[in-house]
Write a structure and sequence with these properties.
Elements (H helix, E strand, L loop, with lengths): L2 H5 L4 H14 L2 H10 L4 E2 H8 L3 H13 L3 E6 L2 E6 L2 H15 L2
Antiparallel strand pairs: 1-3, 2-3
Helix pairs in contact: 4-5
GO molecular function: DNA binding; DNA-binding transcription factor activity
Protein name: ArsR family transcriptional regulator
Keywords: DNA-binding, Transcription, Transcription regulation
Length: 103
């Protein structure tokens, strides 16, 4: 099946997941967070400090990204460390950033 044939046969769940993925990538704060996570694992505090954002804002965005399985976390004591969880989306993000840089 070619790409165009696949595109004609998208089921509702696939359409929803794709639209939610693009929704996630449409927000500048989420893009900044994902771009930082491309460099490795970071705690919520590190993300907030590095990006000059409030901890609550970062936590809210990370919850959104986690629900889409774009990021994952591990707990060390009371600290949560986040990292990327979808290499395909991170590659898409990197390509979009490279594309924007060439304009």
């Amino acid at each position: 099946m070619t790409f165009s044939e696949e595109a004609q046969h998208l089921d509702e769940e696939t359409l929803f997941v794709v639209s939610q993925t693009f929704k996630a990538l449409s927000d500048p704060t989420r893009i900044r967070i994902l771009n930082l996570l491309c460099t490795g694992e970071h705690s919520v505090n590190e993300i907030a400090e590095t990006l000059n954002l409030s901890q609550s804002s970062v936590s809210h965005q990370l919850r959104f990204l986690k629900n889409l399985r774009l990021v994952k976390y591990r707990r060390a004591g009371t600290t949560l460390f986040y990292s990327e969880d979808d290499e395909h989306i991170m590659n898409l993000l990197k390509q979009a950033i490279e594309h924007a840089a060439h304009h």
